[in-house]
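Predict structure. Chain length: 66.
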Amino acid sequence: MSQNRRSTADQPLSGTFCASIAVVMEALLRSLDVIMYCNWDYLSGLERAIGLYRGEQRRRKRFTAC
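Prediction complete.
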């Protein structure tokens, strides 16, 4: 009987845990949508920065190869 009590006690706990994860994921997705909508300039700046960083890495590789 002790095993049955444990399993029934675990079930609602895991259910609430999964629900909280779902809520957090939904909130994250919504915030990402807001960020994508509001900060296109920021995102394009980030892409440029990443591109410049990659370019620097390529230059360094060429330099070390020579």
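Summary: The chain has a mean pLDDT of 68.
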